[in-house]
Amino acid sequence: MRKVYLDNNATTKMSKEALEAMMPYMTDVYGNASSVHAFGREVRLAVDAARAKVADFLGAASKEEVIFTSGGTESDNMALRGVAHALRGRGNHIITSNVEHHAVLNVCKYLEKEGCQVTYLEADRNGIVKLDELKSAIKKETVLISIMWANNETGVINPIREIGLIVKEKGIYFHTDAVQAAGKLPFELKNMNIDLASFSAHKIYGPKGVGALYIRKGTKLTPLVLGGHHEMGKRAGTENVAGIAGFGRAAELAKIELAAESAKLAELRDYLYTGITSRIEHTRLNGDLKELLPNTLNVGFRYLEGESIVLNLDMEGIAVSTGSACTSGTLEPSHVLRAMGVDPVDAQGSIRFSLGRDTSKEDIDYVLDVLPPIVKRLREMSPLYEGGK
Ligand code: PLP
Asked: Where in the chain is the domain with CATH 3.90.1150.10?
């Protein structure tokens, strides 16, 4: 059976190059990067080289602005908790949005229990944070604004540059969860008003369990993980050297591939969307094609349960999801789609297609052959469907 993987926002297949970069550090080159002897120094050089590659990929002003973590979740935790704790004396108000990943939302809920006040901005019908609301939510106690760059479920892109400008005028820290934007959108962090940004290697064809937090020089942050003086005193723990080396190589390739890959993915994504809408009635695009990541399409199939579409496609070798990998299986309608005002029944029938580096036109043609009969069959069984009237 043909296998088609369209769940690249959940994770990507690690590239051969990233694996090759990791291998020495899982076998012969095993020193501790903190050791002063030759074994340690060799590994320290590898960590520093990877840091330089990630910094270059992000367009950071220096490699010291990149701190390695265990992934996007830890980076989000570190940014939010780190700033909230460091600036406690100055203010206790945080602004975020109601379409964030749970790695941000659940940290905000935790910080509320610690006495922080959190404003959850509402997204508009297209899933974009409203700038007017953002401006009016700012108060003198506001210390941090955390708005995701691009949404993992819908691919919707927020106006991060504009938010940076608003925040800069007010002297408030700005964090963005850039886990999904990385490798899909071009940017240079040094030219943007962003103080902190979260990244994850496994979303850019690197290994799982490693990520980074960009911390602009001078940003005050209390460390989350305490211990030794690793990562310039900002994140204790012996470095995951192999993972870091793989991340460095993945970042290097992502930078080289970005323009061509995004153009190819956008073309295939549009081909998929046109194919779906011309073959299947009663669909809804969640988001606006003009403001979407090039690889992502979130489509609602009215009258259906997303889970049954996912399972039926899975039986045909096609991997898609109903939304975030962290919440799938809960049968809860997506908080992101609900925040966009999508009817809960329509939200239940929404599917995320996330294309990747290996996706081909033949893969999309296969999906366009297989999906319409599945939707037809499921609708015929659906109590909600009476010919769509
Ligand atoms: N933030 C966003 C937007 C994500 O999509 C993800 C992963 O799905 C994360 C954070 C968490 O990243 P990680 O899996 O590296 O912890």
From this structure: 4-11+258-381
Q: How confident is the model over 269-313, as pLDDT tens digits? A: 999 999 999 999 999 999 999 999 999 999 999 999 999 999 999
| Distance of CA 73 from the midpoint of ligand 1 (Å) | 6
Using one digit for the tens of pLDDT, what is the confidence trace for 203-241? Answer: 999 999 999 999 999 999 999 999 999 999 999 999 999
Beta strands, E only, the chain: 4-5, 66-69, 93-97, 117-121, 142-146, 173-177, 196-200, 211-215, 283-285, 296-301, 318-319, 350-354
CATH number of 16-253: 3.40.640.10
326 in catalytic set? yes
The gap from C-alpha 208 to its chain's centroid, in whole angstroms, comes to 13
375 exposure class (CB count in 10 Å sphere: 0-12, 13-18, 19+): buried
Q: CATH 3.40.640.10 in the chain, residues?
A: 16-253
Strand order in the sheet with 142-146: 66-69, 211-215, 196-200, 173-177, 142-146, 93-97, 117-121
4-11+258-381 under CATH 3.40.605.10, yes or no: no
Which runs of E-coded beta strand occur in 201-280? 211-215
Question: Which SS3 state, helix, strand or coil, does residue 320 take?
Answer: coil
Taking the C-alpha atoms of residue 197 and residue 55, their distance in angstroms, rounded to an integer, is 12
Active-site residue (options: 311, 315, 326, 384): 326
Q: Which atom of ligand 1 is nearest to the CA of 152?
A: 5
Which protein residues are within 6 Å of ligand 1, measured from CB? 71-73, 76, 101, 103, 148, 152, 177, 179-180, 200, 202, 211, 325
Residue spans of the chain under pLDDT 50? 326, 328
